[in-house]
Amino acid sequence: MKFMNISRKLTKKIKVGNIFIGGDAPITVQTMVKADAHDIKKVVSQIKEAQKYGCDIIRMGVLDMESVKNFGLIKKQINIPIVADIHLNYKFALEAIRQGVDKLRINPGNIGDISHVREVVKLAKEYKVPIRIGINGGSLEKDIPLTPEGLVQSASRHIKILEDLNYDQIIVSLKTSDINTTVQAYQLFSEQYDYPVHLGITEAGTNYAGTIKSSIGIGTLLLQGIGDTIRVSLTSSPVDEIKAGIEILKQLNLKKDSPTLVSCPTCSRTQYDMFTLANQVEKFLLTIKKPIKVAVMGCIVNGPGEAKEADCGIAGGKNCGVLFKKGEIIKTVTEKDMFKELVNLINSL
Ligand code: SF4
Fold first, then answer.
1. Is the pLDDT assigned to residue 164 strictly greater than 80?
2. Is 90 exceeded by the pLDDT of residue 189?
3. What's residue 204's pLDDT?
4. Is 90 exceeded by the pLDDT of residue 273?
5. Ligand 1 pocket test, candidate residues 271, 272, 299, most atoms within 8 A of CB
6. Judging by DSSP bridges, how do beta strands 14-16 and 19-21 pair with one another?
7. Is residue 209 assigned to a domain?
8. Distance in Å, CA 1 to ligand 1 centroid
9. Computed from CA positions of residues 323, 329, 330, 333, in that sequence, does the dihedral angle turn out positive or negative?
């Protein structure tokens, strides 16, 4: 079977620290710091943990100047781009740029006088810091309706402010907590603009429901070739957001350096503890960077055949299992060695 590849809309390529968003750059996965922005140690440890699971870009919101001034120290201790999320206060934006942040999330129409915007844009140009305009259904201008057209209209206003100042290092997001509205807004936007887009469904919910909701919304757009960077918003840890984001990309063949796990649902033919094995394998696969498909199957009779698309896999029977490559059995192993043997096989590929 030949799998279809998604053809991505070619957007403007924007440099964010040491990576790119848009154009032919791989789709990146983001999350936000959830620790107190004043606690540098906790913030850095949370970022490092997220990075371990594949986070490409980290964002941190700030409430006061004290935490804005922490960006420099935090940045020195991490090696992924950091984004300052600023609301309303242009002085925070100026200080964040001076602290060395790699990107700003700020809506120029919300920071008051045009002279403030001019100052921020001037400094952003000088430091080569791109700006994400983050349109959010919950905070639209009062004269704009909460519709897909309204969201795009709001984005257009903010974009125009920046373009009038000859600034084009722009990334845009158009989030709401409703999948349909959000999807249509991004579709409309991408018909009209070539700026790269940051995808997300806002206030998506808990780890379980929010992952499903985000997967539908983000996945629908990615399938249409729309999306340059994604953030799954969950009432859960940054690591959970990253894991969900990466899984969405993997399932759409948009993450080229990661393995995917194929596992059957099990049925009454299963004679071993496959749930435990599948979870062990899934955890192990998070630690390796190979574009392979690994299968964990519930029975020896049908497992290898049902998973012949997989590069390698294991199928368990009574007290034993078989290792297979592309559907062909290569070795029989005891039940207690199944995980170890599969890991060895994966490492050998
Ligand atoms: Fe059932 Fe075997 Fe198919 Fe798994 S592979 S669903 S155990 S028949």
1. yes
2. yes
3. 84
4. yes
5. 299
6. antiparallel
7. yes
8. 20
9. positive
Q: Is residue 3 part of a domain?
A: no
179/316 same-domain check = no
Residue 133 corresponds to which tokens in the numbers above?
Answer: 């305009």
| 63, 39: one domain | yes
Q: Are 282 and 339 in contact (CB under 8 A)?
A: no
Counted domains in the chain: 2
Considering the domain architecture, whether residues 221 and 274 belong to the same structural domain is answered as: no
In a domain, residue 163? The reply is yes
Residue 139: pLDDT band (50, 70, 90) is confident
Ligand 1 mean position to 215 CA, how many Å?
26
Same domain, 266 and 337: yes
Cα distance between residue 270 and residue 321, in whole Å: 11
In a domain, 62, yes or no: yes
Taking 60 as the threshold, does the pLDDT of residue 18 lie above it? yes
Q: 299 C-alpha vs ligand 1 centroid, how far in Å?
A: 5
Q: Which residue has the tokens 């394998």?
A: 281
Percent of the chain past pLDDT 90, that is, above it, reads 85
Same domain, 199 and 299: no
Cα(240)–Cα(237) distance, integer angstroms: 5
Residues having CB closer than 6 A to ligand 1 are 264-267, 269-270, 297-299, 302-303, 306
Q: 97 and 200: one domain?
A: yes
Span 49-79, pLDDT tens digits: 999 999 999 999 998 999 999 999 999 999 9
Nearest-atom number in ligand 1 for the CA of 265 is 6
Residue that is last in its domain, among 228, 251, 274: 251
Domain that holds residue 267: 260-348
Give the span between the Cα atoms of 261 and 312, in whole angstroms: 10
Q: How confident is the model at residue 306 (pLDDT cuts 50, 70, 90)?
A: confident
Mean pLDDT of the chain: 94
